Amino acid sequence: MGERHDQAPAVPPGKRAFPLHNHHANEEMFFILAGSGELRIDKEKYPIHKGDFIANPPGGPEQAHQITNTGKEELRYLAVSTMIVPETVEYPDSGKVATYSRQIAADGSMRIVRQIGRPESGVDYWDGE
Q: Which of 40, 39, 43, 72 is nearest to 53 (CA)?
């Protein structure tokens, strides 16, 4: 049985897999299937290669993480998350904050609430009430 990577996220050379971010609730884990790159944790950078397993625990901006393809071929990885909700995610480079929640509605459909913004553009608790 050969390796199949066609369903794994592919990051082209020179591109980032996702913005630098940290989770308040969820742990994320990555297994590098192909290629090489760099893992940024806060301000530190570490080389990553095929076969590396990376665990990113929840926490503050000191736990912020990002994968960048610094190699010459596509970087492919498998991502696993604990998928805890509600969740808050911070994006230290851009100053954004995101909140996510999901629940099954009375009709059986999935209700998802997602908000991304910057703290300075928020409204007061009683605004519009």
A: 39
